[in-house]
Amino acid sequence: MYQDALQEQIHKTQRKRLSDLLWIVQRQMAMEPVGGQYVVVRPLFSDDSFSGQYKKVCRQHKGLLGHIKDFLKCDAKRAKNAALSLLPIISWIKIYRIKEWLMGDIVSGISTGLVAVLQGLAFSLLASLPPGYGLYSAFFPAIIYFFLGTSRHISVGPFPVLSLMVGSVVNRLVPDGDTARNITGLEGLSIEQQKVIVASSVTFLMGVFQLALGVLRVGFIVIYLSDTLVSGFTTAAAVHILVSQLKFVLGLNTRGFSGVFNIFYSLEAVFQQIHKTNVADLVTSIVIMVAVFAVKELNDRFKSKLPVPIPIEIIMTIIACGLSYGFNFEERFNVTVIGQMVNGYEAPSAPNVEVMKEGAVDAITIAIVGFAVAFSVAKVYSVKHDYTIDGSQELIAFGASNIVGAAFKSFAASTALSRTAVQESTGGKSQIAGLISALIVLIVTVGIGFLLEPLPRSVLGALVIVNLKGMLMQFREIPYLWRKDKVDMVIWIVTCAASIVLGLDLGLAVGVGVELLTVVFRTQFPRCSVLANIVGTDLYKDQKDYLCISEPEGVKIFRIPSPIFFANIDFFRNKLVQAVGFNPLRILRKRNKALRKIRKMLKNGELQMTPAGLKSLAFTGPENWEDEENTDDLDKPVDFSDLPVQVNWKSELPANITVPPVDIHSLVLDFSAVSFIDISALNGLKTALKEFIRVEVEVYIVSCDAYVFEKLKNCMFFDDEIKTSMFFPTIHDTILHILQKHPDYIKQHEYEKEAHFKVYRGQTEGLSLRRTEKPPNTTRL
Amino acid sequence: MYQDALQEQIHKTQRKRLSDLLWIVQRQMAMEPVGGQYVVVRPLFSDDSFSGQYKKVCRQHKGLLGHIKDFLKCDAKRAKNAALSLLPIISWIKIYRIKEWLMGDIVSGISTGLVAVLQGLAFSLLASLPPGYGLYSAFFPAIIYFFLGTSRHISVGPFPVLSLMVGSVVNRLVPDGDTARNITGLEGLSIEQQKVIVASSVTFLMGVFQLALGVLRVGFIVIYLSDTLVSGFTTAAAVHILVSQLKFVLGLNTRGFSGVFNIFYSLEAVFQQIHKTNVADLVTSIVIMVAVFAVKELNDRFKSKLPVPIPIEIIMTIIACGLSYGFNFEERFNVTVIGQMVNGYEAPSAPNVEVMKEGAVDAITIAIVGFAVAFSVAKVYSVKHDYTIDGSQELIAFGASNIVGAAFKSFAASTALSRTAVQESTGGKSQIAGLISALIVLIVTVGIGFLLEPLPRSVLGALVIVNLKGMLMQFREIPYLWRKDKVDMVIWIVTCAASIVLGLDLGLAVGVGVELLTVVFRTQFPRCSVLANIVGTDLYKDQKDYLCISEPEGVKIFRIPSPIFFANIDFFRNKLVQAVGFNPLRILRKRNKALRKIRKMLKNGELQMTPAGLKSLAFTGPENWEDEENTDDLDKPVDFSDLPVQVNWKSELPANITVPPVDIHSLVLDFSAVSFIDISALNGLKTALKEFIRVEVEVYIVSCDAYVFEKLKNCMFFDDEIKTSMFFPTIHDTILHILQKHPDYIKQHEYEKEAHFKVYRGQTEGLSLRRTEKPPNTTRL
Asked: Which residue of A lies nearest to B480 if distances are taken between CA atoms?
């Protein structure tokens, strides 16, 4: 007895000394690091006690209404800013440095203009239109963009992928051959005229969509077109372009196809006629492709030494044009030439309503792709030259450009990467360069266009093909992504394959769908882990990852590594049941059934109260004690109120009643990665937690985000069983709290087992019910 | 001098004593809580030093190939299990307790059978089929499910929503009236026969889809049908059912509609004929609806007192049947009766290929909805009665049921919640009850079916409508969700509205799309926050939330509260720039420009080395020093190698060169909620971090998930500039490390400013370049 008292005394002194020490440490330390040590001495916090000690600032969150009000607020300054942002030219023309920039803009404008003429001609073949209309597309949109655009460097005009997409609509609505559809308003026009009107009507609608997106300021939707997706998509587009140009290179006359599987139909058509190949066209094409390819390689290699890159495409075009005229290719070799060029401009015309109805879905796709490409190119140069571009204003600019362009029969404009590169690298400083390039196009259109009439179409096809190199090289992304991120590789391949096989519009939709699904998937099947304490620290890591790690007795620390929502709440519940090793609902039911049995036996006098607990008097068969007709109320909390004793579920029960053991007393859920929770998940979580609480497992939630906590409160997550006192700021706080609450868990546990074993060893039924008077927390053991 | 030494001595002693104290504390404490204190003393860790001290277990992660191998592994045990799981009846029939369960099953089977007959007749009207075919749907699938199903309680047979969806296909492919389509294989058949074949063909295809999903074990896709979505969808279905039954209740004869806006067309057709309302039908319907509604309320209220609920529907049907027969409703009041019933069963027939082609999309939707409903109902009862059901096996069971059923001209079967409730509540214990209910249906079909022939169709319509109460009551979810979760409310409303307006199949697709988008949205626009230290603790919270909070001088702690992926990486970069208050790229460029200028000035002798730094000799104009033609290399790290001194960017620079100040020296990114990162995000993050590192801001990443870290390593995230030493386990570790590295940041900073001010006060240019010989870490100040 005396020894015990002495021991106690020593212990007390040690404690006293320790807390003195702690006080000193705490005073001295504050936030200073001490010799590479991590020292923290502070009160133990739960979230409740923390918010008791540290007052929270009451922050007014602006509601939806407030945001709308803010958005609609109007004053002089806002009005002026809005006006200025609608006409960006006002801002930049004021700071235009004529002396330093004009020369560069002029040089750049002329080079870009020449390229634009050539590309305009070539890309109108992609759009299944007569070559001259590409010149319109390189003119009108560029003029409008000059006033409305915020990018200083992009060259606005036709873009091969868009041209091909327009061509797909044109081929569908005005097929070559005799399968023509009757479109109201196009009766009596020639096939070519019909094609032009279809293209411009779709372009008009595309412009309207872009304008609408810009006015509604929802240009952010293009972020769903991730780099990977765009890469896969443009690669597929390159394949389509390649196939569509084969007929020009071979000098064949096949019809255009559109819709699902059109690439296979196109290939089939080409190969069926391959014996009709025009050798003159083929030879011209090969010569041009080889020459252009070779000189471009040289340009690349001697980039630093050449003052300007050799304009090989323009040179080859002029040569081809001259040769074709000189040797009369058209008649001698039966080569298809550009022929009658547009001469000047046509009067504006209204778009066709029926075409717009039929092509609405295509127009949406074209609008989004066109803007996405232009915006990403513009962003590259805005970052390089350190100015800001405005997504919504860009949408408005492109929308207006395309609407005006469509009125003058041009087709969908965006920007071509290659042309923009020319404009920037030859010294373009502002859209003045774009304006000058438009003037060059104008001059060709109204003045010297006829000089291009003898140019063979195969030359244009060859130029398009040789420029696909960069886009096709993107196939190299596959092995790169395979090594880095398999999911991204799947997105790339699916987008590319779907775009090739199903056509560009459907393929893009499939790609976006798959891409969004991957986000859901990654959030949905995360890797859960059971954490444990790194011995001697306050750190908790995955217990499977470290050797020197120990799990506190009777405690499970379960980390939820992602947001919880409808699609993964069941997944988490299963993982949690796996981690703790028992199903709390099943145990609760077994306990309630056992309790009913005990009640019945007490009533029938088959069980007797003894000071040590309950004792079974009559032997009842062990089998089927669980058979109950009435399964109601089994999921309710265990209710001892009408019993004279409480049942200790850990020890053996009378009358061969067995209930599976629960070997943990506390469950800690690490919520640090739970960034949101939806209503299904919240209900599921609540149910799961209640099941644990009802089998006397204390549940703690750690590092819960302030907003998630707010949400739980608003959604009536808390009640008699689930309380805010279960929230703690860190895992270590929780574990210390648990240890404080169950100071001798292990010893007592062992001791009790032992005791019961001794007392009831001789009997068939091990009775182990303890008196209700005991302090409540011991009943949890 | 002596005093300083003394001070130093005292300081040293204190330090010594302190570390002694710490040693004692550390020894004594381990993991014991000390009087409600949180005490931690451990070495300061970075992730590198941590993994140096604590060895990681090398875990072999099974690759994709390993999983596939595991999946395909075959041995005797697996084969036996597979066989058993394919025929669940073998498992449960063995443990069937005839004595205790059989009676319940028989009673339940008979009650359910009667309900099934009635529902079969009623639901075939929804499917636009002659009433008798509903009896087939209540027979064949139930028989097959008896052998293959894993749920013991659901009653397999027609389900109103599915019946309506089948009816929609039937109406589309075999419209009433003279607009009939020519379907190969159906020539020469009556309209009714055609309808039956269309329904059974779609059901066949639906069965094939379900079977395929089951065999591929992809039944988990139904988790995308969240509770909210299903609630909105079924409410819309109830509205459709209501509208479709109006014509029976009013005794009208309108044609069925299908496709987008069909509900409006149906309503229009009903109201156009409303003057033709058959009063006898209307009165019968109203009487039946009122009676059934009232008695059901009573059943509900006196649930506990009634032994079985009053089978009011069966009673009313029998009365209506008798009255109709007795008073010859058909001829006297021109009431449409059921008429010629099916008599026995028809020989099996093959499905029609063209119908399957036309109805493929519908079949997919029907298959998914049918399974989703059945599975969710089965899950409720399996949880209640504590047994497991197997999703894939359920899919196989329903697939087989529908395939076999379709062969015998039944239509899509799933389960009806009301019928299953009857089966379970009247004491059904196993699928024996289902078998018996099928036998009842069989007896009616082959034996006493003719007795039902005088039953008016309006009675069936009235019974269907009165049973919609529960589904229509789901409209009450809207205010509930408005209070709890606005996003879920949007999902509910969009799904419901789209399903009503666009039809059930398209509506469901729209709902799922919106639901998945919300997951992306919630992950995409999270709330970022800047953290700060709660004074006196190791806790870091949102600095706007607390009063007693302090941000360490020169440090920004930025919390990223969600996964990072392609759609939000730019968002985070913008938020980060906002949080630190400067754009690192812009500052880097300005610094590099300034350096070029200084180099040029040194070369031209306009700057002179002085022992204190550089001194400007000639006055150069302040304007346009940033004008540079060459913008290359501006994004490279600042390179001092060819300069005799290093530039201190904090102080004034010579020759009026100004560079915006950077007022932080360390940036801490809290990654604890970053559960995954994709390749676009990884590249974006790398760029962002490099920009900060190049303007001499140290970047630290805290609490990075082990798998995310692994991924960063695999994707070559680390190089000369971005090193693994930037990773730390906790924010507090990082801050202590930073304080150690910059012990007198504030003082030195102040001091330097002061010094420069003194020396160069009189000159126009404040020179502030320090010698390169200084230790490297001071250059970062």
From this structure: A715
